[in-house]
Amino acid sequence: MTSPTISQIGEISLIDDIRKQFSQKLRDVTVGIGDDAAVIKPREKYLLLTTDMMVEGVHFDLRFITAYQLGFKLISVNVSDIYAMGGIPRHVLLTIALHKNTPAEFVHMLMNGVKDAMTLYHAVLVGGDLSSTQDGISLSATLIGYAGKYILRSGAHVGDRIYVTGSLGDSACGLHVLKKMKRTVSLNKKNARGSMHSFCKKLGAMHGGPARSGLSWKIVEPLVRRHLMPEARNPQKFIRDATAMIDISDGLLIDLTRLCNEGSTGAKIYEEKIPVSIEMKKAAECLGIDPLTLALTGGEDYELLFTARQGKRVSATCIGEITESQRVIVNASGKERPLSVGGYRHFQ
Ligand SMILES: [Mg+2]
Question: Against a cut of 0.85, is the pTM above it?
Answer without folding.
Answer: yes
